[in-house]
Amino acid sequence: MKEQLEQLRKQTERSDRIAADTALENKRLREPLEQANIQLNEFRRKLEFYERDKQQLSRLKSRNTKLEKKVKGLTWEAETLILRNDSLVAERESLKERFNDVIVELQQKTGLKNVLLERKIAALMREDEKRSIVLHETIATCAPNFADKLTSLDERVGSIIDEKNKIIIDLRYEVAKARK
């Protein structure tokens, strides 16, 4: 029995030593385990952020692709509008030039017509003066007593001529207005 007690004591001491060693080993391993758990939590959090950032990046890439397509479309549309504007500007310049040419041509034609009309008017006035002189001379020679009547007739003809001259002046004004 002494031997058994001795054996039991040794076994108890060994068990105590093993328990102490195990406790010491547990204590020594607990800190790295806690550190590993902290790191694991940190890595999980970082992984969560990484996944979130990855999804965000995917959405942004998709949006960027759509925006690039839209920019290409708008660029093409802008280039088309610029070309259209250039052609319209060229057409406007062409029309402006044609308009100015037509205006110059009309001015030349109306100027020529005015010159011809003025010459006709001058010729008619000279012809009128000649006829008036011939008429006065003829009446004065043939019937001297009609000279007074001829004066009143001259006054009436003069007033009619004045009215006609006024109409001519108005027509000249209208022609000048049409030239502009």
Automatic annotation (TrEMBL):
UniProt-annotated location(s): Cell projection, Cilium, Flagellum; Cytoplasm, Cytoskeleton
Protein name in the entry: Dynein regulatory complex subunit 4
UniProt keyword list: Cell projection, Cilium, Coiled coil, Cytoplasm, Cytoskeleton, Flagellum, Microtubule
Family: Belongs to the DRC4 family.
Pfam family, one: GAS
Signal peptide: none
A cellular component annotation (GO) from this entry: microtubule
Natural source organism: Drosophila miranda
Annotated InterPro entries: GAS8, GAS8_dom
GO biological process terms held by the UniProt record: cell motility
Gene Ontology MF terms: microtubule binding; small GTPase binding
Coiled coil feature spans: 26-98
Keyword Kinase: no
Domain of life: Eukaryota
Domain Growth arrest-specific protein: 1-171
PANTHER family (UniProt xref): DYNEIN REGULATORY COMPLEX SUBUNIT 4 (PTHR31543:SF0)
